[in-house]
Amino acid sequence: MRINKYLAQCNISSRRKVEEFITSGQVSINDVIVTNLSTQVLPTDIVKFNGVVIKPSNVKLYFLLNKPIGYITTVSDEQGRHTVLDLIERTPERIFPVGRLDCNTEGMLILTNDGDFANKLIHPSKEIDKVYEVVVTKQPSIEQFSALEKGVVIDDFLTSPSKISNKVKDPSGTYKFNITIHEGKNRQVRKMMEAVGLKVKALKRVKIGALPLGNLPTGKYRKLTKQELNLLLKNGGK
Ligand code: URA
């Protein structure tokens, strides 16, 4: 394992800070200072940070949070805004959100300290489905739905075909439906709606892979079971 990954798993600090510790000469392997981030650590090596032996934590944590509006999906924020980590009880392990949800989007967010698991969940090649419940200000036309299903151009990128389901008209005039996509471009659903001329009133992620959000209240979180972790990496009907 590379030294930067090894240190990141020791819960000392963020991945970025850990790299600074290495390049500034605070880390040694078998009492020899290493500054190259790609130095390999062997299972028998003794790694020290400022002279103290450190070992990776093998405790893996996986949480499901129902993110409320108004929280950003970063680990810390220089502008002092609320982050999703403010909603999770502190653990010695450094957990982080898997992927993003906009500040104004609510719903399913996974947090973990398992980098490999996180990569599997967000890597484009895995094509893990994500279902979003969208509320728009007016009833979409057949053409608008059809454009969304075929794929639309956002930021010079043609989105893959999506799936529209659970269409519900609200007596107040708004219209709710689910859209299933597997890509994770920045603000993708909002941009897709904008591309076909629809105005988003509310957006919520309600399913990842084959795991639904269920009845977890907004702002609450819980641990995921092993079975649920498998469901996350599995696509619903595929
Ligand atoms: N698409 C969006 O527009 N926002 C999100 O937070 C997630 C997907």
Small-molecule binders here are:
uracil
* Text of the CATH class of the largest domain: Alpha Beta
Radius of gyration: 21 Å
CA distance, first residue to last residue: 34 Å
CATH second-level architecture of the largest domain: 2-Layer Sandwich
The figure for the number of domains is 3
Largest sheet: 9 strands, mixed
What is the H/E order? HHEEEEEEEHEHEEEEHEEEH
CATH overall fold name of the largest domain = Alpha-Beta Plaits
Mean pLDDT: 93
Q: Helical amount among residues, as a percent range?
A: 10-25%
Explain what the structure shows.
The chain has helices at 3-8, 15-23, 115-122, 142-150, 188-195, 226-232; strands spanning 27-29, 32-33, 47-49, 52-53, 62-67, 96-97, 106-112, 130-136, 153-154, 157-158, 163-169, 175-181, 200-208, 211-212, 221-223. It is α+β, with helices and mostly antiparallel strands and 238 residues long. The strands form 3 sheets. Strands 5, 6, 7, 8, 11, 12, 13, 14 and 15 form a 9-stranded mixed β-sheet that branches. The chain has a 4-stranded antiparallel β-sheet with strand order 2-1-3-4. A hairpin with a 2-residue loop joins strand 1 and strand 2. The mean pLDDT is 93.
Keywords summarizing the entry:
238 residues, alpha+beta, Structural Genomics Hypothetical 15.5 Kd Protein In mrcA-pckA Intergenic Region, Chain A, Alpha-Beta Plaits, nine-stranded mixed β-sheet, four-stranded antiparallel β-sheet, 6 helices
